Amino acid sequence: MSTLPLSPNYPVKPSRIDTFQHFWDAFGNSETEASAHWVVRLCQERGGDSWAPFRGEEIRALYNARFPSSYFSFNKLIIDGFVKEDGDTYTVTHEFVARCYKASPATETATGGTPNAEN
User: Is 51 helix (H, G, I), strand (E, B) or coil?
Assistant: First the structure.
């Protein structure tokens, strides 16, 4: 398993992953898969369509916009090495992206365009 952090210019962009679907069996735990969904969603929504490192406050703000009285948890993403933590900065790994993409690749309907086209 490759646990090296990704370059922000990694070829599989966040937009290539369908966050409208659950990432079934991607991480062996539905709570961890839900956390992965929020991480991908953050990378999709903050602009740039890249896997650039993000801060804890960013993921918490996105999650709290939907669930105001809840606390975002990475569940097993950090413990199992899918997300790297450096203080309050987080970076996803190749294995994280590969598992999310395999579980829920974006379709033309989900992205509004061709699945393999650059945005």
Answer: coil
Domains of the chain, by residue range, sit at: 14-110
User: Domain 14-110, what architecture?
Assistant: Orthogonal Bundle (1.10)
Q: What is the pLDDT along the chain (119 residues), one digit of tens a residue?
A: 555 566 656 889 999 999 999 999 999 999 999 999 999 999 999 877 889 999 999 999 999 999 998 999 999 999 999 999 999 999 999 999 999 999 999 986 544 544 444 43
CA distance linking residue 23 with residue 118, whole number of Å: 23
- pTM, 2 dp: 0.85
CA distances from 65 to 9, 12, 34, 61, 105 (A): 28, 27, 16, 6, 25
Q: Is 24 exposed, middle or buried (0-12, 13-18, 19+ CB in 10 A)?
A: exposed
Determine the Cα–Cα distance for residues 93 and 84; give it in Å rounded to an integer: 7
- List the structure tokens of 17: 């992953």
Give me 39's structure tokens. Answer: 């991480």
